[in-house]
Design goal:
Helices cover about 75% and strands about 5% of the residues. With about 260 residues, it is mainly alpha-helical. The protein is globular.
């Protein structure tokens, strides 16, 4: 029963990814951990496969709708990929299994990663809700700005092991000035590349993956993202922005609750 609920949630994960261009990995990692009992570090590798396949399916529809900024994909995506690879291949591996331990408190690597995960979700969600005025502008799509934002996103993506949509979309909307729907399509394209590099940098973990869970979860997520992508045709940019924020905030609270439930 627990796994059935997990697969149902995977459809919702895909729907979120298709509708708002992010949140796929944010939701995938906790679902894999809490409903399939997969260790958090390995769950990030599952997540890269699942979100990458779902993003590929969704980006095809956004390509047809002309919702991809190729300039942004290159200037934002390349530094993001480089930093992501460095983080996943070397820096994350340097974090010890137990970061801090006393008689009363033990902070593990898994606890630390999920906690950072939740905080970043909360900040990203609130940033999308707080800014009431929404005015897309090409003036903010500067080369330097996109490169710096891409590098920062790659660092976050590599550390947490996610596709990065929940950071990419707010960055493209709030700082690069892209319209919400174009930010979503562009985000999905960048996520595909990020996931491929993330998988390549943790290739040793692939042999530990349960192919049945990965396959079924991915199929459900792809169904969801196709539904979510179609939904963007009837929802305006201004409505998508706060929807993104509230979805991320809600999930951050759920993850916070589950973290402290398991570590109290």
């Amino acid at each position: 029963m627990q796994e059935i609920i997990g697969y149902f949630l995977s459809v919702l994960i895909g729907f979120s990814l298709g509708l708002i261009g992010g949140g796929g990995s944010i939701l995938t990692v906790p679902v894999l951990v809490f409903f399939f009992d997969i260790e958090p570090s390995l769950a990030t590798t599952y997540s890269l496969f699942i979100v990458g396949l779902a993003a590929l399916s969704g980006s095809i529809n956004h390509y047809r709708m002309h919702n991809i900024s190729y300039k942004t994909v290159v200037l934002f995506g390349i530094p993001s990929v480089i930093v992501l690879f460095i983080m996943r291949r070397w820096l994350v591996q340097m974090i010890p299994p137990v970061i801090f331990h006393t008689d009363k408190i033990t902070i593990t690597k898994s606890f630390f990663i999920l906690s950072i995960f939740s905080v970043l979700m909360l900040v990203a969600g609130w940033s999308m809700i707080r800014q009431k005025k929404y005015a897309p502008s090409k003036d903010r799509e500067s080369v330097g700005r996109l490169i710096i934002q891409g590098a920062l996103t790659g660092a976050v993506t590599g550390f947490i092991g996610i596709g990065g949509g929940f950071i990419i979309v707010p960055s493209l909307v709030l700082f690069a000035g892209l319209p919400m729907k174009k930010a979503i399509g562009t985000s999905l394209t960048i996520i595909i590349v990020n996931c491929i590099i993330g998988i390549a940098s943790t290739i040793d973990a692939v042999q530990s993956i349960n192919l049945y869970i990965l396959t079924v979860f991915s199929i459900c997520a792809i169904i969801g993202i196709l539904l979510g992508t179609q939904a963007t045709r009837v929802i305006s940019d201004k409505k998508l922005k706060p929807i993104f924020g509230w979805v991320i905030i809600l999930m951050s609270l759920v993850v916070f609750a589950e973290i402290f439930k398991q570590h109290r």
